[in-house]
UniProtKB/TrEMBL annotation:
InterPro entries: NIF_FeS_clus_asmbl_NifU-like, NIF_FeS_clus_asmbl_NifU_N. One of its GO terms (molecular function) is iron-sulfur cluster binding. It holds the Pfam family NifU_N. Transmembrane segments: none annotated. It comes from Syntrophotalea acetylenivorans. Signal peptide: none annotated. CDD domains: IscU_like. One of its GO terms (biological process) is iron-sulfur cluster assembly. This is Fe-S cluster assembly scaffold protein NifU. Residues 1-119 form the NIF system FeS cluster assembly NifU N-terminal domain.
Length: 122
């Protein structure tokens, strides 16, 4: 049912945690299932230098967060804003249909954190 990449990122998630002095913090709660994700950003010269996340959710949501973190660390804020939910699911070699909403959490929480960073004017 799950691709090898999903299982890898679920059992060994990258970049789990909190950044205490984060430059931007975002959160997304899934309307479908109530799972939630928090994203913490460290931004230097418009580039995401570090990202940590906390996900209270299913395996697909954790795998999506982990993949999202790998996709955007080292990227500019504009590149990160262009990351779509579909791109996260594709990078995981797909998710089963009932689990597609889980990948939405990752990109949405990321975009919320970037919005927060911009509002703070850090
Ligand atoms: Fe909430 Fe996935 S339904 S854990
Ligand atoms: Fe709801 Fe995965 S985030 S089931």
């Amino acid at each position: 049912m799950y691709s090898d990449k999903v299982i890898d990122h679920f059992t060994n998630p990258r970049n789990v945690g909190v950044i205490i002095d984060a430059d931007g913090v975002g959160e997304k709660v899934s309307a479908s299932c109530g799972d939630r994700m928090k994203v913490f950003l460290k931004v230097v010269d418009g580039v995401i230098e570090d990202l940590k996340f906390q996900t209270y959710g299913c395996g697909a949501a954790i795998a999506s967060s982990s993949m999202m973190s790998e996709l955007v660390i080292g990227k500019t804020l504009d590149e990160a804003l262009a990351l779509t939910n579909d791109a996260v699911a594709e990078a995981l070699d797909g998710l089963p249909d009932p689990k597609l909403h889980c990948s939405n959490l990752a990109a949405d929480a990321l975009h919320d954190a970037i919005k927060n960073y911009k509002e703070e004017g850090a």
